[in-house]
Amino acid sequence: MSDIVSVIVPVYKVENYIRKCVDSILCQTYTNLEVMLVDDESPDRCGDICDEYAKTDKRVRVIHKKNGGLSSARNAALDELSGNWVLCVDGDDYIHPKMVEKLLDAALRHDADISICCHYEDDNNKLLITNKIYDEARVWDRHDALKKLVDDDDIKSYAWGKLYRAELFNGVRYPEGRNYEDIATTYYLFDKAKRVVKIPDFLYFYLIRSDSISYNATTQSWHKGCHASCIGQEERARYFKEKGYKDLYELSLSKLLPYVFSDIRSGYCAGAKENVKYAKHMLKDYKTEFLKNSLISDKDKKIIDVYLKDEIFFNGYIQGKEVVKFTAKKLKRVKQKLLPQKKTRDFSLTGDKKIRIVYFELPCFDNLGDHAIAYVTEKKLADFCNENEDYELFVVDGWNTEDDSRSLKKYITKEDIIICQGGGNFGNLYSFAEDFRRIVLKSFFNNRIIIMPQTIHYTDDEDGQKVLAIDKKIISKCKNITIFARDYKSKAIMEKYFNCNIEFLHDIVSEFDVSPINKTRDGILICLRSDKEGTLSLEDKQEVMRLCEENNEIFVTDTCIKRDLNSSKREEVLNKKLEVWGSKEFVVTDRLHGMIFSLITGTPCIVFGNNHHKVYETFKTFEDCGYIEYVDSVESFRQAFIKMQRVKNNTYTKADYSGDFTILKAKILNNGEF
């Protein structure tokens, strides 16, 4: 523990938050700290609170200075620090007790000069994950790390959430008097680092509050931030050009142009004429470079001249643009109806095949539960077609539903079978899924249609009733349709509203053939949702994690990975995720497929419900496995956790639901009848 970590905390108008922030730093498991509290002439009691900490803990140093802003406060600490490493924490945020320990360990283990962690957003009593989810540490050299930083995707420019080797700041300071100061600084630090590591641990808690300097509540504040970002990005692009980093220069320019457009637009709205003039001057200076840049779309290149015009012309363009968009949308619909479509797909049967099975996937986005459904369904249907020579499988990607449906109509026969992807998207919670499914049902109502296992839910309001009425009408016109429900409550709802064949079938992912995971089980996996279906508050989640961490190391992940995944990578990513599940002693989740991933890897699991019946009712279909327990509150979780601790080393036989496929095969072979 010879390395000293200097933790820099700028302090200004954070009286209600500073104690939580400083307490989280002082309780770090890594104790060799220099905690630098910089009182930027805060008008509240912050200065006194900082002095109180200095009296009770010798690691705390307080710098009282004349007000100069966030950059000035950080710079004051950088000028006086004595540590080997630097960690920046904003005065209204807080950190995990192991943040310093884990970041420093990763930096030393990977010989990196910058170590980055993931972060939560603490937003209105919700603990949210916005980072892309990876379950392993990733290491980049200087150039690749800079590329990630400029891309502003996997690595952000925020000063916080990163541990820096102190010597990187030699000759580097934050620009004073500007917002978004980190955009203008972080790339310098990355360019001096030989290696950068990012670990998958969520160790920083970023507080969202309406009165912070980064919150843009007005047009003026939005423009101020946009203008500052624009200046920082232009400086960055110029720096890369001077350094001869051609690819980074081009990438930086492609990122800069949309901000220049926003700077001009918001500048007009905010009445910031000088800033508009500055942005136009920048646009004119870089126009040739923008036009040559292959990373910038032709659409953006075409409107550069519009943004260089005067305000009257520009406003006329914006108003006319809305009219043109509306007209173009109507013309597109007419064109689709009247003109032959260029994009077609060949659905011809090969060899002696006689019957098509056309499987329509839904767009899965970043949801590994949906990807697992699509993957297992396709595998099972492919197995069926291999066993039955008359059948040939065609898989339609969700995004191609409309075009491929149009193409299929030229080939379809009455014997062909249409299969729609299952999931938890039947009802009015996920309108995009309804839209895609309706295209299929309306296009092939004369054919045999099978909808794979679904949860159904309509909200008890006008929107729910409206969507239900449309679904009833469309389904009533389908001549031979079977809908599988993956829980018995959904089955009852379907039987109540739809006059068609309704059957029960477990979620298809329960039939995922998981390869043996030869790892010693260790630790607790936490997989808690951050979306509209979640019911756990911030305090609930933190209490769950606290209870788990008191007994074992926790690892946080999610089945929604915050990055799009195409079908070619689906199997690889799913197997990696299942390996994470299978390597843990047990799992805590409120995600339906977090529970099912536990089921298929034989991993004990405690599962919370979501905001309707989906998780609980699906749990009831699997509770006979013996190693999944449902809880409906943090209090009942405590009891289940104690029980799980007693049996965590037990070996469980993975539940077998392979018999379900026999039911599906019967539906296909017997024209929808058993």
CATH architectural designation of the largest domain: Alpha-Beta Complex
Low-confidence stretches: none
Shape: globular
Q: Which percent bin holds the helix content?
A: 40-55%
Number of helices: 23
Structural features, described:
- The strands form three sheets. Strands 1, 2, 3, 4, 5, 6, 7, 8, 9 and 10 form a ten-stranded mixed beta sheet that branches. Strands 11, 12, 13, 14, 15, 16 and 17 form a seven-stranded parallel beta sheet that branches. This protein has a five-stranded parallel beta sheet with strand order 19-18-20-21-22, sandwiched between helices.
- The chain has four domains: 5-207, Spore Coat Polysaccharide Biosynthesis Protein SpsA, Chain A; 219-308; 355-511 and 664-669, Rossmann fold; 524-647, Rossmann fold.
- The radius of gyration is 29 Å and the shape is globular.
- Helix 14 packs parallel to helix 15 (431-443).
- It is built from 23 helices and 22 strands.
- Helices cover 45% and strands 18% of the residues.
- It is of the alpha/beta class.
- Helix 16 links the parallel strand 15 (448-457) and strand 16 (480-485).
